[in-house]
Design goal:
The complex is a heterodimer.
Chain A lengths: L8 H19 L1 H24 L5 E4 L10 E4 L1 H24 L5 H20 L3 H20 L5 H31 L4 H7 L5 H18 L9 H7 L2 H26 L1 E2 L5 E2 L5 H21 L4 H21 L3 H30 L12 H4 L1 H15 L5 H16 L5 H26 L11 H19 L2 H15 L1 H9 L7
Antiparallel strand pairs in A: 1-2, 3-4
Helix pairs in contact in A: 1-2, 1-4, 2-3, 2-4, 3-4, 3-10, 3-13, 3-18, 3-19, 4-5, 4-10, 5-6, 5-10, 6-8, 6-9, 7-20, 8-10, 9-12, 10-12, 10-13, 11-12, 11-17, 12-13, 12-17, 13-15, 13-16, 13-18, 13-19, 15-17, 15-18, 16-17, 16-18, 19-20
Chain B lengths: L1 H5 L2 H20 L3 H22 L17 E2 L2 E2 L4 H32 L4 H8 L1
Antiparallel strand pairs in B: 1-2
Helix pairs in contact in B: 2-3, 3-4
The chains are: A mainly alpha, B mainly alpha.
């Protein structure tokens, strides 16, 4: 058990600066913007330091109360990788926001964005099942407000829908946590994970269904994802980018931390305790999500709505990869999560730049973009190729390993092979349609100037997609370690937090 | 442990029915204000549920004094204080959500001139 208490700064610093932004705002609005950027920059630097110098596995102990008695944060390979992903994507979106959030309430936007990042990092870091709920609500409440931000009135409807569905989801989660508490009398994830087989199977399954329904709302899985298209379309593009690049990451993490570490039964393939195997339930929900999301994306004329449905489908694909339960499957899932959050954030930012330049949101408006602005056309194509899993782009390696994992597992999981191929074909159809529009049509329209500030994050994201595609080991090494943590819960999670606990 | 908290069956049934009533209102009602009320009822149901599992009719207060014994004949007879503190947190979170929901509702009324979900949908077209 290593203790590295400074890691609590990853949550503390953004929260501190979130609430002191109004003070900076008294001096000038520009200062408030730059403080936001510097705070998230600190988070990105510090989390990359933890990731690259291999400080993990380590725990943060609050007030010297060792777990299971006190609340703790756990930084394993998964948390280190995902918190770096969240804060780096957050930093790039913050750079974009310097340019995008000009009018209106810069100060309130900065407060919400910092709270959003702090909450998402908290979900990934926490080692306490009730604190997970609190961080979910911090992320949730700030993202409802962010989604309602902006001049357009359609944002309000999307935000309200999101609020209602997500509040019901978190209430269900809380009920599930309470049921587990009645059985074990603890809220520490590591202790629950070690003693989960002492519970009544029926009650455990009921609690599991409640918790998974609650978390599936933010993870955009099928029956609970009705909010996705409206919210993503209504929100301003920086917010849509952070919803799909940051919030979705933490939601998928929370879902599988509960399903695999808390409920999981270790074996060659992770299954869960209780009357039914929750991993199979998630697999079915996620597969339905993929089919529905891809087919709905195919029929959209509005690019933002198409990206929203595509985001839903990708989250389904990630969840299906995790639910295979083998090391290779989780590896593919985490790899796909990284690829998705980089590519989708970039696509939303590009749409944001185009909309600000007066290009519409419809597919037809993208005609001849190559002649009007080669940079945006090229980066959009890079993102599209990565989404559909074209070789030499990031998405190829993750989809490849998802297929390999389902071949390895065999049995009824073979349907995942077909599912991934189906998803790739449909994605190829609707993404390549836009790419073809951009490159082939010769429409006479004035050129678009690329603004300098948003070009920086878009360029960095595009370069990283190609870099991951050419050198997959950049992410691959970390996702191998992360997959190891998810599939070996006792040795990689529980014993790192509470070394003295007896294995079941 | 199971039997202890099932002694509160009346509160548990109440909590679950509050949850059901709230869910029904939220899913079926067309007025945004009533949807928010429904959300609040769901939250109350959850809070009642959490309090009910931590207490049973013969429970004593969870503070150790000379006359107040928490453990009698090897059985814990005190109420569990932890869920009550969790409920405090949940109430505060519920307040925040409600406040934000009402703010959005006010904004929706300003922009659309109605709180009826159907009319808002028509206005979008």
């Amino acid at each position: 058990m290593n203790i590295f208490n400074n890691a609590a700064l990853l949550i503390g610093v953004p929260l501190l600066f979130a609430f002191s932004i109004p003070l900076f705002g008294l001096i000038s609005k520009e200062l408030a913007k730059w403080v936001t950027l510097l705070t998230i920059g600190f988070n990105a630097t510090f989390s990359l330091y933890i990731l690259l110098t291999h400080k993990f596995p380590t725990i943060v102990v609050m007030g010297n109360w060792l777990p299971p008695f006190g609340e703790n944060l756990y930084i394993g390979p998964v948390a280190a990788l995902l918190v770096s992903l969240i804060s780096v994507i957050g930093l790039l979106i913050a750079i974009y926001n310097l340019w995008a959030v000009k009018r209106g309430d810069v100060i309130r936007f900065s407060i919400l964005f910092l709270m959003f990042t702090a909450g998402a990092s908290g979900i990934v870091l926490t080692g306490d099942i009730f604190n997970l709920f609190i961080f979910m609500e911090i992320t949730g409440i700030s993202s409802y407000a962010l989604a309602a931000f902006g001049p357009e009135r359609r944002a309000l409807g999307g935000a309200f829908k999101f609020l209602v569905v997500s509040s019901i989801g978190s209430t269900l989660y809380l009920m599930g946590v309470t049921l587990i508490y009645t059985q074990l009398g603890t809220l520490n994830i590591a202790e629950i994970a070690a003693r989960i087989n002492q519970t009544t199977p029926g009650l455990l399954t009921f609690a599991g269904i409640l918790i998974i329904s609650g978390l599936a709302v933010e993870a955009e899985l099928f029956p609970f994802n009705g909010w996705v298209p409206d919210t993503y379309t209504g929100a301003i593009n920086g917010v849509s980018a952070s919803l799909s690049g940051i919030a979705a990451v933490s939601a998928v993490y929370a879902l599988f931390r509960i399903a695999m570490t808390v409920f999981g039964k270790s074996g060659t393939y992770v299954t869960t305790y209780g009357k039914i195997d929750l991993m199979a339930v998630i697999a079915i929900l996620a597969a339905t999500t993929v089919v529905i999301g891809e087919l709905s994306a195919l029929s959209q004329k509005n690019v933002k709505k198409m990206l929203a449905y595509s985001s839903m489908a990708q989250m389904g694909l990630i969840a299906v990869a995790f639910s295979i339960g083998s090391e290779l499957g989780v590896y593919g899932g985490i790899f796909q999560l990284v690829n998705h959050s980089i590519a989708k954030a970039m696509l939303f930012l590009i749409v944001g730049v185009l909309v600000a330049a007066g290009v519409g949101e419809n597919i037809d408006d993208f005609r001849g973009l190559w002649k009007r602005n080669p940079f945006l056309a090229l980066t959009f194509s890079v993102g599209a190729f990565s989404m559909l899993g074209f070789p030499l782009f990031g998405g190829f390696w993750s989809k490849f390993s998802i297929v390999a994992a389902s071949v390895q597992r065999g049995g009824w999981y073979d349907f995942i092979i077909g599912l991934v191929l189906f998803a790739s074909v449909v994605e190829a159809f609707y993404y390549l349609r836009i790419v073809a529009y951009m490159f082939s049509s010769d429409v006479e329209a004035p050129k678009i100037k690329t603004p300098m500030i948003p070009a920086i994050p878009i360029f960095i994201l595009a370069v990283s997609i190609v870099a991951i595609g050419v050198f997959p080991q950049i992410v691959g090494n970390f996702s191998t370690q992360a997959a190891n943590e998810f599939t070996h819960k006792m040795s990689e999670y529980v014993l790192n937090v509470i070394p003295t606990i007896a294995a079941h | 442990m199971m039997q202890v908290f099932l002694q509160n069956w009346i509160y548990l049934i109440g909590a679950i029915s509050l949850f059901g009533i709230g869910l029904y209102i939220t899913l079926t009602d067309e007025n945004i204000f009533k949807i928010i009320v429904g959300l609040n009822i769901i939250e109350s149901g959850t809070n009642l549920f959490m309090i009910a599992i931590a207490w049973h009719p013969k429970a004593v207060m969870p503070i150790y004094t000379a006359t107040n014994h928490l453990v009698v004949n090897g059985k814990v007879v005190s109420a569990d204080p932890l869920p009550q503190s969790l409920v405090l947190t949940a109430i505060v979170i519920g307040l925040g959500t409600t406040a934000l929901a009402l703010t959005i509702a006010v904004k929706i009324f300003e922009k659309y001139g109605t709180l009826d979900v159907r009319k808002i949908k028509e206005a979008k077209r």
